[in-house]
Write a structure and sequence with these properties.
mainly alpha, elongated, coiled coil
Length: 66
């Protein structure tokens, strides 16, 4: 498998992870004020997931330009 193909596969997995984190954050927001103490940890998880996804997308873009 080429670097581009493996990076695309990783991005697909990270995208699913980010989508799940987004849904977790959305679900938490609908339940507020119940579980308000989880806001920071759930938001951090979503932030980290999207940050990692964006980084890998930039890596793929750089590979495609090379």
């Amino acid at each position: 498998m080429s670097d581009v193909e493996s990076l695309k596969a990783e991005i697909k997995k990270l995208s699913a992870k980010a989508t799940q984190a987004k849904m977790d954050l959305h679900d938490l927001s609908e339940e507020l004020p119940v579980n308000w103490t989880a806001i920071l940890s759930v938001a951090q998880k979503a932030h980290d997931a999207f940050s990692e996804l964006e980084s890998k997308r930039q890596d793929l873009q750089a590979l495609n330009k090379a």
